[in-house]
Design goal:
- It contains 10 helices and 10 strands.
- By secondary structure, the protein is of the alpha/beta class.
- The longest helix has 14 residues, at 283-296.
- It starts with 28 loop residues before the first strand and ends in an 18-residue tail after the last helix.
């Protein structure tokens, strides 16, 4: 990929929470608070995009040879605790409210892996930034939340990959200032970029802010938001020029006509994986389970269901090197 590569990229961040109703932003009333946080109000009757009706996970069965790779105590207990970051479609979101089960690509893949392994998942919703530190303490057996595999993270966390995603940009439909694709951060010079607080996107933009000065251009400005409600509202109201988030999330959002956003292509790709504490005895079993799903076609059906087939991997790997 042309252009400067982000330095010390901490990985994909799914923390921009696209409440599914936000893809219908022009139909909703959203109120953004100050830097301390955001709030949003949704009129009665606002609906999230419907969940695809295909259910590839239903037919998945336990594979004894794969389940045998689990530690004996896990096989005996029959459950695994997963710290799950529920963000936005198509990865993981609440289509029917937070009191109802989540849906999405990450949910389906995790559930299918659990069925191959013959265990049940005890899903605990958690904010993205709290999951990786909690793995070391034993609070969760593994984490799920569109975690990107990076050199920095590999120092303290093990990964089992299941998809390839990354960073991208989106603008309000009709804004042609950036052309059709962002390939170099100097294209953002002089603009205001909105992204999630504490995310990998914020880190990348902060670390690379000097590229504009080196190019003799006006620096870009970064505004961070704790909820994507505020980010998307700011874009629609012209307070920011562009959003930086995940490739699949922004592509999915742009496919919802009411969101009035245009996806500006892929900027940086990363493998995405289930996260484990360093040295976890679960990784080989999870890798074998993902590869079983790839082999029997379930994996392809899940990605087709959520429109993410372009992010498919050929085989699951444990701790692959970060993409360059």
């Amino acid at each position: 990929m042309k252009g400067p590569r982000p330095v010390n990229l901490p990985g994909i961040r799914a923390g921009l929470r696209l409440a599914a109703a936000l893809t219908l932003l022009p139909l909703l009333t959203l109120t953004a608070c100050g830097s301390g946080g955001t709030s949003a109000t949704t009129p009665a009757g606002a609906q999230a995009p419907p969940v695809p009706t295909d259910d590839p996970v239903a037919a998945v069965r336990k594979v004894d040879s794969v389940a045998a790779l689990l530690p004996a105590d896990v096989r005996k207990a029959g459950t695994l605790r997963v710290g799950s970051s529920i963000g936005f479609p198509p990865g993981a979101y609440f289509p029917n409210g937070q009191d109802k089960p989540p849906a999405g690509q990450d949910i389906d893949i995790a559930d299918a892996v659990a069925k191959v392994l013959g265990v049940k998942l005890e899903r605990q919703d958690a904010s993205f930034e709290t999951i990786l530190p909690a793995l070391g303490s034993g609070k969760y057996d593994f984490g799920s939340g569109n975690f990107g595999v990076t050199t920095e993270r590999l120092k303290t966390v093990d990964f089992v990959t299941y998809i390839n995603d990354g960073q991208g940009f989106a603008v309000k439909t009709g804004n042609t200032a950036l052309g059709k694709k962002v390939t170099d951060l100097t294209q953002l010079c002089g603009l205001t970029i909105g992204t999630g607080a504490g995310t990998t996107f914020e880190a990348t933009l902060t670390e690379q802010k000097g590229v504009c000065a080196k190019a003799g251009k006006k620096p870009y400005d970064v505004k961070v938001y704790s909820e994507n409600a505020a980010t998307l509202t700011a874009l629609q109201q012209g307070r920011i020029d562009v959003i930086m988030s995940t490739i699949n999330g922004l592509r999915y959002q742009a496919a919802q006509p009411a969101s009035q956003t245009t996806f500006l292509g892929e900027f940086h790709r990363l493998d995405v994986g289930f996260a484990f504490k360093k040295g976890s005895p679960l990784t080989k079993a999870f890798q074998a389970a993902v590869n079983e799903l790839i082999k029997d076609g379930t994996y392809a059906r899940i990605l087709t269901k959520w429109g993410t087939s372009a992010s498919a991997i050929d085989t699951s790997r444990i701790n692959p090197p970060e993409h360059t």
